[in-house]
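testing teh design pipeline on a random one, pls ignore if ur not involved
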């Protein structure tokens, strides 16, 4: 079995680095042993040699640390070395530290001797400099005296020479005047000839420039014509160039087709144009969509979307998903250049070997929508067979998304009645999915449906709430919201539906579903009331109390201080109110939640200033005073999934507060 080339390169690099560091440690160790002998050299020379060896070790410290971390890796999937190599690396690391420590100790021991030796050396050098400066001063004085004597002799000689030169100068001036007259005549004649020559050269240069400018203008016109032709050829789709890619593919013979495989997984191309053409022909014969993912190994977004792309291939076996890693082979790199792919990841969509669309970037939602849009086998409706794509969100992520969407919905509705109507409409669609998970008509909603738009779709947050439950937008002649069979089986749907039904006040009139059937809605918070003794709480009084605490931080702090000073205050209130006592006995978690909220003014203030959290608290309080007679147990299909109704409300309030306060909301989700 051949070892991959990349593996061989890594092994060679590791062994080279290991040998290099081993040699440096051996060299430093031998140097330290030799320099430890007092008479081997002067203290300063020994100090310099020690520093050089330590600097060599310091320059290799980062590489040694990296090799040591790789050798200490316990995760088998991340281990780089084999057992023998790990032992060698760890032994080298220990010896590296020991030798460096030996050098540091030797340096510290020699330091005082080097300082003393340097001090003595400085004194010797200072004395030598002073002696040299004194000698220079003596030489300068002797030179000055000699210069003065020479200057006096030269002055006398110059006076005699000046007299002789005066006579000579007069004769020279006469001769020069004659020469200048002759020279002026010659220069005049030369100037006339040069002027004629310059005029001729300038005329020739002007003619050459005109010819060169004409040639440049011709080339500019040709360049503009080429650019214009290029713009016309690429006006529909500048990048990538489908015609160029199709031409390149059509010129390749299928001499080496890829080995046949079953769909339902990503087909990874390594053979460039030959293999891609074979796959496109395979998809064309089946009348299927081909999605090509252009990526690079070093591209972070490419690696993040890779698992999602592979999941799409598994859940949509009617389409052929192809991966082209440009680092996988030179043929793939050449293919990407021919396809004019310059950003990663890029997705191309082919039908009948013709490119229909492209997508640049790791946009998961957009990718899913375009796959749905361009798949000729499944473009506008749910598949009659197969489960479809599941909802990847955890229960906690689903709950956080629903609460965020409902917060936006609450803010965009004109009144509480409108908000309740919107939420009940949402619950109707979700209830239909839960009641009829296998029927396609209950798992799709037309976005242009008038009833849907009036009650939910037109409100800000309405479509987002549907998407939070697992619906996805499907483009087509009639845009739709669709939830797959797999997404409809998400175990969070029943629990989220119960949470909303408990948080939204019941009304006499139910919202009709798409089929005209209205499921019964009840207010399970009425079950929190006792057998009597606690009268129904006035919602207006509750609203006024919440407004008072929300606008008066001092009152909140005083209440928190009372609870902290008297931990039994909540229990005392329950003892005087049978209904509250019965509620706490049935659900001790509610008492704990109330004590924590009451003693934490910051958390309670955040809840009171969050519109959606207040609406849920108001709904709960409205039901608490209704008494047992008004309580109606929820139907069996609405049973909470492992949480009591109080825990549901507490979790919703906690998440709403966390989100409103900027925390991003959400527990670790189950």
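output:
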């Amino acid at each position: 079995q051949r070892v991959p080339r990349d593996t061989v390169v890594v092994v060679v690099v590791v062994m080279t680095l290991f040998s290099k560091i081993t040699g440096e440690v051996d060299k430093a160790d031998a140097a330290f042993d030799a320099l430890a002998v007092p008479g081997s050299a002067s203290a300063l020379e020994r100090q310099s040699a020690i520093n050089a060896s330590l600097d060599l070790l310091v320059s290799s410290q980062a590489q040694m640390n990296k090799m040591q971390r790789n050798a200490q890796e316990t995760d088998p999937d991340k281990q780089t070395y084999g057992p023998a190599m790990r032992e060698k690396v760890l032994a080298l690391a220990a010896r590296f530290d020991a030798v460096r420590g030996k050098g540091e100790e030797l340096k510290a021991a020699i330091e005082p001797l080097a300082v003393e030796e340097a001090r003595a050396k400085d004194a010797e050098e200072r004395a030598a400099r002073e002696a040299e400066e004194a000698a220079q001063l003596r030489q300068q004085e002797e030179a000055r005296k000699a210069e003065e004597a020479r200057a006096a002799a030269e002055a006398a000689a110059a006076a005699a020479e000046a007299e002789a030169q005066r006579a000579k100068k007069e004769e020279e001036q006469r001769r020069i005047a004659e020469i200048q007259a002759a020279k002026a005549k010659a220069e005049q004649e030369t100037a006339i000839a040069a002027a004629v020559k310059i005029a001729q050269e300038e005329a020739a240069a002007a003619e050459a420039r005109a010819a060169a400018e004409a040639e440049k203008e011709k080339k500019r016109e040709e360049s503009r014509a080429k650019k214009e032709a290029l713009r016309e050829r690429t006006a529909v789709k500048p990048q990538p160039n489908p015609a160029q890619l199709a031409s390149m593919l059509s010129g390749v013979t299928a001499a080496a087709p890829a080995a046949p495989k079953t769909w339902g997984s990503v087909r990874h191309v390594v053979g460039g144009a030959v293999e891609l053409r074979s796959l496109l022909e395979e998809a064309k014969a089946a009348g299927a969509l081909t999605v090509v993912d252009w990526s690079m190994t070093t591209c972070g977004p490419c690696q993040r979307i890779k698992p999602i792309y592979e999941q799409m291939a598994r859940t949509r076996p009617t389409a052929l998903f192809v991966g082209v890693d440009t680092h996988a082979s030179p043929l793939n790199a050449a293919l990407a250049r021919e396809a004019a792919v310059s950003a990663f990841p890029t997705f191309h969509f082919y039908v009948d070997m013709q490119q229909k669309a492209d997508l640049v970037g790791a946009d998961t939602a957009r990718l899913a929508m375009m796959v749905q849009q361009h798949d000729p086998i499944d473009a506008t409706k749910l598949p009659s067979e197969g489960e479809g794509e599941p909802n990847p969100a955890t229960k906690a992520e689903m709950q956080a998304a629903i609460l965020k969407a409902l917060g936006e919905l609450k803010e965009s509705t004109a009144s509480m009645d409108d908000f309740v109507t919107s939420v009940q409409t949402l619950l109707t669609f979700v209830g239909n999915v839960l009641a009829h998970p296998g029927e396609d008509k209950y798992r799709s909603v037309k976005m242009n449906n008038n009833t849907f738009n009036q009650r939910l779709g037109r409100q800000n947050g309405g479509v987002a709430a549907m998407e939070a439950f697992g619906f996805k937008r499907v483009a087509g002649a009639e845009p739709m919201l669709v939830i797959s069979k797999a997404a409809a089986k998400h175990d969070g749907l029943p629990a989220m539906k119960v949470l909303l039904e408990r948080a939204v006040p019941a009304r006499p009139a139910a919202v009709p579903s798409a089929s005209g059937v209205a499921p019964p809605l009840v207010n399970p918070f009425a079950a929190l009331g006792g057998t009597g003794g606690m009268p129904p709480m006035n919602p207006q009084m509750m609203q006024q109390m919440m407004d008072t605490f929300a606008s008066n931080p001092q009152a909140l702090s005083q209440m928190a201080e009372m609870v902290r000073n008297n931990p039994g205050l909540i229990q005392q209130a329950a003892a005087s109110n049978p209904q509250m006592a019965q509620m706490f006995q049935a659900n001790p978690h509610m008492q704990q939640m109330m004590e924590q909220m009451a003693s934490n003014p910051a958390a309670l203030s955040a809840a009171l200033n969050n519109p959606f959290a207040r609406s849920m608290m108001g709904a709960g309080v409205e039901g608490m005073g209704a008494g047992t007679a008004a309580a109606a147990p929820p139907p069996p299909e609405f049973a909470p999934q492992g949480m009591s109704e109080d825990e549901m409300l507490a979790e919703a309030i906690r998440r709403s507060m966390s989100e409103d306060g900027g925390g991003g909301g959400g527990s670790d989700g189950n």
